[in-house]
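Whiteboard transcription, Tuesday session. T.W. wrote the C-alpha cells on the left side:
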C-alpha cells in the first residue's frame, strides 16, 4: 500500500501559519499548561488517524483550525469553546475519553463537547433542519448558546469551501441550511457580517447567474461609486474634525444578497437603486464613558444633518432603544450631491464591535452577562421545548418566527417598553406582558382608541389591554398571532382545555354506570366508540362533554352491544387494523388499554417490520395501523415525529413476546484505519459470534481510512449489542453504527468534523 502523506508541503505551511494565528487570538485567555497539554493530545490523536481528507479533499485538521479561527476572530470566542471545538473530534472518535478532557481542561469544556456530541448526528442525514434533529439542536442551544456559535463557525467555513464540493446538490443543501437556519440565527445573535456573507454565498450557489450579474455590475460601477463616496466623506470629515471628534469614517457597499432582494421586490434596473452603499461614522470613546456615548452620537448626527437634508421617514434610532440582540446605532438617510440618497450610520467603537461580533462582544463589555434581549429569546426557546409541541414542524416555524423580523417598540399605560416583531397584534402584546392577560384579552385601547385583538400594532403605540373573566383562548387566535410565545401559550391552553373536558366527560359516564351498578368492560366500550365512527377516544368524550351525545343513550347503546355479543357467544378478536380504536399516549393510560404484543408465532393479525428503521426483536417499538395492516417501528424512528403529529390516532403501544428468531437483517457501518487485515479481523469476529451470520459486506478505502457496510443476520437486540461491542474492540476500528434503513449507505460528516 502506498504511503499517503498526512500533509502536503503546502498544507503543512498553511497549518503552522493558522496555528500561529490561533495562538495570537487566544493569548491572555489560556490557562497555565493548556498549550502543552493540547499539543500532546493532538500529536497522539493525529498519529492514530483522527484526521484525514473527506471525499471532497477537505483536510479535517485544516477544517478544524479554520473553524477555530472563525470562532476566535470573527465571533470572539475564547478558551473554553475553542478547546471544546479542537477536542470534539477526538472524543467523537473515542480516541480521547471525555473524563480525561474534564480532568485536563475542566468541567465546562467537557460539557460543551457533550452538547456538541448530542448534535453530532444532525448531519447524519441530508439536513439538520428536520423534525427531531431540530428539537435536539434547540435543546443544545437552550443549554449553552456557545454550541450554536461553534456550529455557525463550522457552517460558515463549509460555505466558504463550497467551491470544493464535488456535487452541486451538496452546495445547494449547504445554501438551504444557511438561508433557512444559520443566517437567521447569526442575525438574531448580532453577527451581521457572518449573516451577510452566508446569504451572499447561498445566493452564489443557488442563483449563480443572478449573483454573477450583480457582482459584475458592482465591479463596473466601483470607480464612480468610490469617487462619489470620497466626495461625500471629505466635507463631513472636515466638519467633524472641526467639532473635535476622534473618529473613523468609511463607505460600505451593500451585500449582493440585499441588492438581489431589492431587485426582486421592486421592478427597477440595477442603475436605479439609489442606496447601494452606506457611510459609517465610528466615534472613538473611552471604555468608561458609555454614559456619554449617546449624546456624542446625537451631536455627530446633528453635524451631518446640518450639512445634508435628512429623510425623516428613514430615520432609525437604535441608540435610545437598542435591538433585542444588543445592536446600537443611529441610522439616517440624507440627500447627498447629485440628488442621491445616502445612508449614514453613526455609532461608537464599542457599538461597532457589538454590531460585528454580536453576543461575544457583550460578554466582553458586560463581564460575561448576555444581553437581556437574548436572555428573553433563550427563555422563549426553553418555553417552546417545555411545551412539548407535538408537531415538530410547528416547533421549527415558531422558532424561526423570532429570528428574522424587524422589531417595533410599544408601551404599556405605565410606560414599560415591550419589543415585538413587526406585524405583531394586540393579542401578541397581551401575551408578551403576561400569559394570564393574553388568555383573558377581548380588545384593547391603542392610543386611546378601541381596537380588536387582531389589530396590528405600530411603532410607539401605547396599548391598554381590555379583559373579561369569561374569555379563554380560541383556536382561531392561532391564525393571526405572530410571536412564538403567543402561539405556544394558546396551544398549551387549548390542550389543557381539551384534556379537562375529556376528563370531565369520562368521570360523568363512569358515575352514570356506577349509579346503575354496572361495571363496564373497557374492550366493549372501545368497540362501541369505534362503531360510532370516532378515530380517538378523546373525540368521543369531547362530544359527550359538549352535549352532542346523551350519556343515558350511550349507556343503553353500550348495554345493547354487550348483550348482542354475549348472546352470539362471540369472543373479541385480537385487535387488528379493522377493530382497533386508536388512542393517544395520554388516552392509553387513562383507558388502561392493553399493549399490542408481537410474537414470531403471532396469528390473527397482519403485521410487518418497517423498512425505514429496521426493528429487530428486543428493540423498543410501537405499532402503526395502516391500510396495509400493522407496521412495527422502532422508538426513535426518523419518521416517528411526523407519524405522531399527523396520525397520532393510528399509533398503538407495542412490545415483543417470546423469543427472537435468527432472521433479522441489520446493517452496520464500521469505520477505522485502513489495514490489510482489518476486514479479515471483522469478518472473523462476526463468524465466531454464536447466533450471528454474515450476509454481505462492502468496503471503501480512501487516504488511509476505510468505511465498511456489513449486513448481518441476528436473532435479537441483545445479540446485536454484543456483536457491536466485539467489533468495536477489533484493532483499527474507531466507530460502529447501526444503520436504521437496511438500504442506507452511511452517514455523512457530523458538524465540526470532516
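and on the right, the sequence the group agreed on:
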Amino acid at each position: 500500500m502506498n504511503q499517503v502523506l498526512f500533509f502536503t508541503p503546502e498544507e503543512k505551511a498553511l497549518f503552522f501559519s493558522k496555528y500561529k494565528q490561533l495562538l495570537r487570538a487566544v493569548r491572555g485567555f489560556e490557562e497555565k499548561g493548556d498549550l502543552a497539554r493540547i499539543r500532546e493530545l493532538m500529536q497522539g490523536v493525529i498519529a492514530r488517524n483522527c484526521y484525514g481528507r473527506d471525499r471532497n479533499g477537505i483536510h479535517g485538521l485544516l477544517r478544524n483550525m479554520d473553524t477555530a479561527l472563525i470562532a476566535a476572530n470573527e465571533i470572539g470566542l475564547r478558551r473554553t469553546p475553542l478547546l471544546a471545538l479542537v477536542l470534539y473530534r477526538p472524543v467523537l472518535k473515542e480516541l480521547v475519553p471525555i473524563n480525561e478532557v474534564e480532568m485536563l481542561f475542566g468541567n465546562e469544556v467537557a460539557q460543551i463537547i457533550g452538547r456538541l456530541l448530542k448534535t453530532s448526528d444532525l448531519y447524519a442525514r441530508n439536513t439538520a433542519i428536520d423534525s427531531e434533529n431540530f428539537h435536539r439542536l434547540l435543546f443544545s442551544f437552550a443549554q449553552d448558546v456557545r454550541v450554536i456559535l461553534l456550529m455557525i463557525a463550522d457552517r460558515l467555513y463549509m460555505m466558504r469551501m463550497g467551491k470544493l464540493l464535488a456535487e452541486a446538490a451538496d452546495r445547494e443543501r449547504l445554501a438551504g441550511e444557511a438561508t433557512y437556519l444559520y443566517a437567521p440565527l447569526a442575525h438574531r445573535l448580532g453577527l451581521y457580517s457572518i449573516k451577510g456573507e452566508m446569504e451572499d454565498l447561498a445566493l452564489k450557489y443557488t442563483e449563480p447567474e443572478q449573483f454573477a450579474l450583480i457582482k459584475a455590475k458592482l465591479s463596473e460601477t466601483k470607480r464612480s461609486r468610490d469617487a462619489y463616496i470620497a466626495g461625500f466623506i471629505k466635507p463631513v470629515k472636515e466638519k467633524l474634525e472641526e467639532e473635535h471628534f476622534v473618529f473613523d469614517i468609511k463607505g460600505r457597499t451593500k451585500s449582493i444578497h440585499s441588492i438581489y432582494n431589492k431587485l426582486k421586490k421592486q421592478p427597477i434596473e440595477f442603475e436605479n437603486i439609489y442606496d447601494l452603499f452606506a457611510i459609517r461614522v465610528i466615534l472613538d470613546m473611552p471604555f468608561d464613558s458609555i454614559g456619554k456615548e449617546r449624546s456624542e452620537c446625537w451631536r455627530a448626527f446633528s453635524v451631518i444633518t446640518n450639512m445634508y437634508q435628512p429623510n425623516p421617514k428613514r430615520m432609525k434610532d437604535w441608540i435610545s432603544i437598542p435591538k433585542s440582540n444588543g445592536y446600537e446605532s443611529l441610522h439616517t438617510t440624507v440627500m447627498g450631491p447629485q440628488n442621491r440618497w445616502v445612508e449614514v450610520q453613526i455609532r461608537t467603537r464599542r457599538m461597532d464591535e457589538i454590531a460585528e461580533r454580536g453576543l461575544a462582544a457583550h460578554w466582553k463589555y458586560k463581564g460575561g452577562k448576555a444581553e437581556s434581549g437574548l436572555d428573553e429569546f433563550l427563555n422563549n426557546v426553553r418555553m417552546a421545548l417545555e411545551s412539548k409541541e407535538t408537531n415538530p414542524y410547528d416547533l421549527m416555524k415558531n422558532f424561526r418566527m423570532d429570528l428574522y423580523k424587524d422589531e417595533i417598540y410599544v408601551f404599556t399605560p405605565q410606560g414599560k417598553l415591550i419589543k415585538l416583531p413587526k406585524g405583531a397584534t394586540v393579542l401578541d402584546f397581551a401575551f408578551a406582558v403576561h400569559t394570564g392577560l393574553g388568555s383573558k384579552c377581548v380588545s384593547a385601547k391603542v392610543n386611546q382608541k378601541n381596537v380588536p385583538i387582531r389589530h396590528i400594532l405600530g411603532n410607539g403605540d401605547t396599548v391598554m389591554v381590555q379583559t373579561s373573566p369569561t374569555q379563554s383562548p380560541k383556536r382561531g387566535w392561532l391564525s393571526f398571532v405572530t410571536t412564538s410565545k403567543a402561539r405556544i401559550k394558546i396551544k398549551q391552553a387549548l390542550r389543557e382545555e381539551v384534556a379537562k373536558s375529556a376528563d370531565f366527560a369520562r368521570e360523568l359516564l363512569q358515575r352514570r354506570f356506577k349509579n346503575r351498578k354496572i361495571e363496564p368492560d373497557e374492550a366493549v366500550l372501545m368497540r362501541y366508540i369505534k362503531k360510532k365512527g370516532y378515530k380517538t377516544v378523546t373525540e368521543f368524550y369531547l362530544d359527550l362533554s359538549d352535549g352532542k351525545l346523551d350519556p343515558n343513550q350511550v349507556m343503553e347503546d353500550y348495554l345493547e352491544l354487550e348483550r348482542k355479543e354475549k348472546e352470539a357467544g362471540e369472543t373479541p378478536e385480537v385487535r387488528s387494523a379493522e377493530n382497533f380504536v386508536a388512542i393517544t399516549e395520554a388516552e392509553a393510560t387513562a383507558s388502561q388499554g392493553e399493549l399490542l404484543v408481537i410474537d414470531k408465532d403471532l396469528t390473527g393479525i397482519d403485521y410487518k417490520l418497517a423498512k425505514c428503521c429496521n426493528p429487530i426483536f428486543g428493540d423498543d417499538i410501537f405499532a402503526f395501523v395502516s391500510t396495509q395492516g400493522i407496521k412495527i417501528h422502532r422508538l426513535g424512528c426518523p419518521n416517528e415525529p411526523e407519524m405522531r403529529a399527523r396520525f397520532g390516532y393510528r399509533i398503538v403501544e407495542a412490545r415483543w413476546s417470546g423469543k427472537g428468531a435468527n432472521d433479522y437483517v441489520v446493517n452496520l457501518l464500521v469505520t477505522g484505519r485502513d489495514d490489510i487485515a482489518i476486514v479479515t479481523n471483522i469478518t472473523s469476529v462476526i463468524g465466531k459470534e454464536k447466533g450471528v451470520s454474515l450476509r454481505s459486506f462492502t468496503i471503501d478505502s480512501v487516504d488511509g481510512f476505510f468505511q465498511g457496510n456489513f449486513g448481518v443476520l441476528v436473532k435479537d437486540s441483545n445479540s446485536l449489542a454484543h456483536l457491536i461491542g466485539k467489533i468495536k474492540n477489533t484493532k483499527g476500528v474507531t466507530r460502529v453504527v447501526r444503520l436504521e434503513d437496511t438500504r442506507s449507505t452511511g452517514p455523512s460528516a457530523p458538524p465540526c468534523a470532516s
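Someone added at the bottom: The chain has five domains: 9-166, 216-365, 372-492, 585-656, 664-738.
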